[in-house]
Every structure is written in structure tokens, then in C-alpha cells.
Amino acid sequence: MSYETLIIAVLLFAAVVSGWLLGRRGTQTETVNGQGRTGLHPEYFKGLNYVLNEQPDKAIEVFVKMLEVDSETVETHLALGNLFRRRGEVDRAIRIHQNLIARPTLEREQRAQALLELGMDYMRSGLLDRAESLFLELIDMGFYRKQAYHELLDIYQQEKDWDKAITTARKLENVSAESLAHVIAQYYCEQADEHLRSGRIDRFLECINKALSNDPGCVRASIMAARQALQAGDARKAMSSYLRVEKQDPEFISEVIAPLLECYTSLNKLDDYIAYLRKVTDQTGSITAMLTLVRLISEKQGHEEASRFITAELKKRPSVRGVDRLLEYVMHNTDGETRERLMTIKDLTAELLRNRTAYRCNQCGFEAKALHWQCPGCKTWGSVKPIYGVAG
Predict the structure, then answer these.
(1) If 0-12 CB within 10 Å is exposed, 13-18 middle and 19+ buried, where does residue 391 land?
(2) How far apart are CA 72 and CA 68, in angstroms?
(3) Which of 64, 276, 280, 383 has the largest CB neighbor count within 10 A?
(4) Does the model's pTM come out above 0.70?
(5) Residue 225: alpha-carbon gap to chain centroid
């Protein structure tokens, strides 16, 4: 018997027991056509027979038809509705939960639970407007407010209604006593991105400032502000925003190394940039900073000096990217069979780098080659970060 069939059998058994108990409450001497009644309907046995014969769909039809709604069977109905939703039969789940809500005898808390489940059904089927109405009703009733706000946030994120998302997040903070400042900052960044695409620079800057006001550690806001400033020709302002990232989260330094070169070059401060790279390499071990520094050393002092520097760094912090670059420099001074052997190794490191993922979500482990500010896997904001280590 499959797990799903077993669940149906348990639910059907619960219905049998419920029906038997209801029958016991009535007169046990009542007869129909001379036969004693116990309150147990023959259809229940038909349903059990379907279960035993591995015909779960027919068993469910009998079960839904025969199960009466009362205070003792509400939980069974809810369990059946959840079963339908897990199976992907959302229409059936909706009918079960709608049937529950239509019962005037339902207690307030039971009605609230049915509303919550129906809202989840609507979410699963993509009927976001109906789901929103039910979650708002739950909040007005004072039941399941924390979960309702969470579901509303999911709806507004899907609809990209960032104003409602911000308002709802603040209400959820009050209900749950947990800070959502970092999430609210991401919502403001989403708004800022929309304004930037539409050319509304004033609104863009306003949203960036609100993002940083809510979360001073919002790396995304700093990077967005820097990119806009650089596009506008303000290299000094862009540099200031990029440099802020190191204090906000050193793990994102690799994201600002390349654009900072453009800023320092534009301001004729290349020596300052080299000093910055040396500091970052020593303090954080950033491979991106180290390789950028190696390239500048090679341009200024030649391949030999670059090779010596990168060799010393690889002894402290080995990495595939570092070895790949070192091979490139060493091959300049070799030929013949030695060069062919080095080329074989270079091909291997190049293949490793080509297939690597550069980012990983700290929450669910989702890996990607591009940076996502919201994890595509678990939908967590700000959890995807650059991968560090030998292969990072």
C-alpha cells in the first residue's frame, strides 16, 4: 500500500469512527425496516474496499460524499484538503475548504483555519487576488496574523507591488517582533531599479537613500548608487559608494574591484588603487583583488615580477584561478615539451574555471554563475554571496 493510499485509509477510518460516534449519540433502538441501526453507513465499507484495492481516487469520492461536517470532523476535512493540495489537485482542495467555510455552525477559530487553508489553495492555483482577500480577512479577524502577513508578502513580491510589500513587512515586524529592515531595503532597491530604467533619477536616489537608511549594510544599494554615479560621469562619488562595500560586507569585495579600477583611472589615482588592492589582498585574501594586482604588476614590472608575487600569494592562499594565471606567465618563458606539458595543465584549469559556479546561497545551497539579490531557490533576500576558497 502506497503512502498516499495509507493516508486516505487513515482519513477514511477517522470518518468511520466519527460516524459511529454520531450514531451512538442517537437512539440505539431505532430500526429501519426491522434492522437495528448503529449510525454506520454502508458507504464507509465501500470506501474501505476501494482503499484495500488500491483505488484511492474512488475511495476519496466516497469519503468526501459521506463525511458530515461537524465540530468533530473539521480537522479531518482540513487534512483531506491538504492531501489534495499536496497531490496537486487544488480544485478539490478548494471545494473541501469552501464547503467548510459555508457551514454556519463552524466555530470562529475553525473558520479561520479553513480560510487560511483556502488562501493557501488559491496561492497554489495562482489566484493571488482571492488569496490576498482571505489573508486580509484573517488579519481583520485576529487569527494567524503572522502567517497571513508572510503569505501577503509572497503575493506582493510576485506582483512586484513594492509599496504594499514595504507596508506589509512593517506590519509583520510589529506582529512577529523580528526585524525585516534588510528585506525592506531590498524592496526599496527594487523600486530604485524601476525608477532608473524609467529615467527618474531623483526617485532612484530617494529609494537608494531609504534602502541605506533601513539597512546601512545594504551592499546592493551601494553598488547601484555607484553604477549610476559612474554612468553620470561622477567617478569620485562612484568610488565613494564602491569603497563603502568593504565595510558593509567584505565578501562582496570581488564585485567592486573591476569598477573601482575605472574610478581610480578616471581620477588619475592608479597608485592609490594599487595600494588599495594590496591592502584588500592582505586583509581579506580576495583572489579577485590579488589577480587584478598581479595584472598591474605585470604591466608595470613584467611577467617575472608578477610570477614571483603570485607564487608567494598562492603559498598563502592556493586557488585554481591563481594557478591558471601563474601558468600563463610561466609559459611566456618556456617552449618545447615543457610548454606542451604546461599547456595541458592550463587546459585543465581553464576547464575547471569554465564549469565552476561563482555564487552560493547561504540558506539553501543554491548555486549560480550570476549574482542574484533574491535566491531563486528559497526566495531569501541577500543570502546569495560569492564563493571563496580553492575553487572560488
Answers:
(1) middle
(2) 9
(3) 280
(4) yes
(5) 24
